[in-house]
Structure formats: C-alpha cells, structure tokens
Amino acid sequence: MRRRRAAVAVAAAVLVVAGLTGLTGCGGTEGSATTSPSDAGTSDITEMQKLVDGAESAAAEAESAAAEDD
User: With a threshold of 0.90, does the pTM exceed it?
Assistant: First the structure.
C-alpha cells in the first residue's frame, strides 16, 4: 500500500510540474522568432500529453507491483 501511495504522489508531482512548466512558458519555444504562437501551443500540448501518459504508465506499474506484493 505504501508503494501505491508513493506512486500516486510521484505521478501527481509530475503532473503539477508539467502544468507549471506549460503555464510559465519554460521550455524555450515561446518568444522565438522562428516559432509561431500556434505551433508553440501545439508542441506544448503534445509534450504535456507525453508527460501525462508517462505518469499514468508509472502509476499503473506501481499499482501492479503493489498488488503483487499483497
């Protein structure tokens, strides 16, 4: 049970960091002369989706491992 809680906490932290990174514009593509605003938005959404997918995958693996431990 402890692993599951840790996995959920890690997944939540990843999502929070990813959200804050997207909101604050960290990542370096905003303000670039070669990137249009719509392209930057699309790449940000794609990157966020990758992070969310990774967090969901990690949480699922942790839940599976926790179930095996029980």
Answer: no
